[in-house]
Amino acid sequence: MKPFAGLLERLVFTPSRNGKLRHLQRYFAETPDPDRGWALAALTDGFERKYATPSLVRPLIEARADPVLFRLSHDYVGDLAETVSLMWPGPAEAARENAPLALSDVIETVREARRKEVPALIAGWLDRLDPSARFALLKLLMGGMRVGVSARLAKTALARYGGIDLDRIEEMWFGLSPPYTDLFRWLDGTGPAPAVDDRLMFRPMMLATPLEGEDVARLDAGAHAAEWKWDGIRVQLAAHDGQARLYSRTGDEIGGSFPEIAGAADFDAVVDGELLVVAAGEVRPFNDLQQRLGRKSVTRRMLADYPAHLRAYDLLFEGGEDLRALPLDARRDRLAALIARENKSWLDLSPEVPFASWDDLARLRGDARAAGIEGLMLKRRDSTYQAGRPKGPWFKWKRDPLTADCVLMYAQRGHGKRSSFYSDFTFGVWRGEEVVPVGKAYFGFTDAELRQLDKWVRDHTIDRFGPVRAVSFGLVLEIAFDSIQRSNRHKSGLAMRFPRVARIRWDKPVAEAERIETLEALVERAAPDLVAQ
Amino acid sequence: MMRARGADSHPESWLRATDGGLYCVPGDFHVDPHRPAERAVITHGHADHARARNGKVLATPGTLAIMRARYGAEAWRESQALDHGETVRIGDVTVSLAPAGHVLGSAQAVLEYKGARVVISGDYKRRRDPTCPPFEPVACDVFVTEATFGLPVFRHPPDGEEVAKLLRSLETFPERTHLLGAYALGKAQRLIRLLREGGYDRPIHLHGAMGALCDLYEAQGVPLGPLRAVGDRDKKELAGEIVLCPPSALSDRWSRGFPDPLTVMASGWMRVRQRARQRNVELPLILSDHADWDELTRTLEDVGAPTVWVTHGREYALVHHARGRGFDAKALSLVGREEEDET
């Protein structure tokens, strides 16, 4: 347990992606099988169930600790697993054992154990471990590691560790199972590549480059197809033989949160599209989709209130046939036929937006805001489907952002290279006599401007909360944002999408910053479904 | 051992918690006064215990050296050094200073009056510290203890393990400067000694606030190995090195310019994850000069005083525990004590 505990500790405190990768690689290199495979399963949510719950763990500590001291400690620490691991009776240093408790001992035992044996097993293990390993044990069995490692990141570490292409790991991932001994043997160069059916794998997506308004004239209008740019999340649906996986743009499997799609895709194809919430024929605001993202269990109510929908724009495979080398028009024809044939309520085609000239299209883009659309996608009709972000075949032509002059309220220190800079800014607008927060931005300024902002924050601090400083109201930031929506995340009841600092208004008096009423008028209602029209 | 007999000789009647700190009536002196006092017994050199501008100061030679280095001519009007094992009379009170194991020069103030003995432990720890002699339990009627880490969640791991984490990180990230935040008095020198014991013999680089106290430790017989001032050197040269600074400097403008700095913080508070995350610490080291919960509770048993007064920290939990163990315990609220590393 000790090396695994050390890994978790490093991961939770390491902010940078590269740093996390280095820790993972080192762990894979230094840890024998099958422990490293079980650790990988723990990090990638590879266990079939949770083996312990708070209601199982709490009585264990209550039987061993003074109730007053437990309550005071729990109040102070906050997290139950952490409190128990720290105050569990026994030395702060684990006894030196001949055979220390291995991660695989724990997993293999608990998987075989009957439910009522589990509490005594856990107590026995806690007695043998030091506080940091106790914490790792409890998190392992209770789930919810929260160490900031996505499945994609863990797979990237595997690829780097083995010196192989990430796509090859993705390709075989869903054919593998813990403790991944065959995978590690291959990565170590001591065994062949595991043979798995790759039909459900994640295929790296093709991404578009941003287009600035004036560039468009240089493109050949006749060679391009236009589509709306939807404000949902990009997904890939891979379905084969009654099974389906829904992947996010980074290759994380999110099908569990969207059973109405992942559980109902009974065709054989890989579809690229936008995940949206569509209710009564209307595309709902992004905030509605957010209610569904990241949920482990989905209630019937969620399904009814926020029904998920896949608006498809590309087809990568059909019936095992790789279509990616075909031109876009041909792929879209096949996609349209598939959608018509399958006739699913949750699946439709992102329509082409017809246009005669770029001026024509520019007008449509100008109206995009009123229609609740993020902008336009321009794709060459002859483009093949290429992984990554090739420059040229696909462009996104976003609508112009909105802007608002906001008052700087709080600043938080960044991480890594920015750890000595106040670089994350919370800003607000006037509501009556008070300023209420509407968003948070951490980019849009140059390094030189960051230095100035940092100095301003330090010179105007009125309060501190950990890494956060409250400042006196004295600086106006012009914030650019894509849209603004109702949200209970902020006291203002509003939240901006993609806010960034457009300009620092050193000159502007705070009294002239925006009022909440102005922003409320910009909140978009649900967009009428353009396809249904 | 001596026991208080008459009501008038019980320390309750002659040792008082006042606005200025603990005041000994028959000796007319304060212990660690938090504002200048005419006569003061000082347990150790940390600024919340040893303040400037007292009149007559009694302390160990180590503590006096630290106060002189920090305050110069402001330190006192008159000083008297008292080694461990020596006694002195102040008024009707006999005073001696027993080792506390906290930092160089740290002591417990042992006060005897009319057959009753009080030990004011100041700050202390029980584990080994290569920079000062270990805490000595002194039998007494009233034991005054701190409670900085007075919750059972505070269990400091072995020092060697924590230092090994830092050495391991230097291996994993040889291109990053490891900025190590630690108290300039005591923690910094102990860390340097522990690093040397862990086999680290490269030069350790020091923030400007560290140099004088490191010199003082060396002069007092604690060798620290090769040290270099960061000064106005090109910080780019310090990739893969350890740079020691006060905790406040980690988030200070000073920390800019080091190559991809990795922030390390050595403190007992690092035991609780949320505390470490609030400080934006990438590598928390759980290392403290204060007793952890196990040391606090063990010390009550080792000293065996029937009466326990608990001062700064999480008094309530320790008082609760002590009462459960049969001690006559109460919280003594003293103003002006700061939490370790809460800058």
Automatic annotation (TrEMBL), chain A:
Location of the ATP-dependent DNA ligase family profile domain: 301-431
EC number per UniProt: 6.5.1.1
InterPro entries cross-referenced by the UniProt entry: ATP-dep_DNA_ligase, ATP_dep_DNA_lig_pp_1105_fam, DNA_ligase_ATP-dep_C, DNA_ligase_ATP-dep_cent, DNA_ligase_ATP-dep_CS, DNA_ligase_N_sf, NA-bd_OB-fold
Tagged with keyword Ligase: yes
Keyword Nucleotide-binding belongs to the record: yes
Keywords: ATP-binding, Cell cycle, Cell division, DNA damage, DNA recombination, DNA repair, DNA replication, Ligase, Magnesium, Metal-binding, Nucleotide-binding
GO molecular function, one term: ATP binding
Coiled-coil annotated residue ranges, if any: none
Pfam families: DNA_ligase_A_C (PF04679), DNA_ligase_A_M (PF01068)
GO biological process, one term: DNA replication
Gene3D superfamilies, per the entry: DNA ligase, ATP-dependent, N-terminal domain, DNA ligase/mRNA capping enzyme, Nucleic acid-binding proteins
CDD domains reported for this sequence: Adenylation_DNA_ligase_Bac1 (cd07897), OBF_DNA_ligase_Arch_LigB (cd07972)
Catalytic activity: ATP + (deoxyribonucleotide)n-3'-hydroxyl + 5'-phospho-(deoxyribonucleotide)m = (deoxyribonucleotide)n+m + AMP + diphosphate
Listed name of the protein: DNA ligase (ATP)
Species name: Marivibrio halodurans
Lineage: Bacteria, Pseudomonadati, Pseudomonadota, Alphaproteobacteria, Rhodospirillales
Automatic annotation (TrEMBL), chain B:
Pfam families: Lactamase_B
Gene3D superfamilies, A to Z: Ribonuclease Z/Hydroxyacylglutathione hydrolase-like
SMART domains xref list: Lactamase_B
Transmembrane recorded as keyword: no
Keyword annotations of the record: Exonuclease, Hydrolase, Ligase, Nuclease
Main enzyme class: hydrolase
Enzyme Commission numbers on file: 3.1.-.-
GO molecular function: exonuclease activity; ligase activity; RNA endonuclease activity
Protein name: Ligase-associated DNA damage response exonuclease
Provenance organism: Marivibrio halodurans
Classification of source organism: Bacteria, Pseudomonadati, Pseudomonadota, Alphaproteobacteria, Rhodospirillales
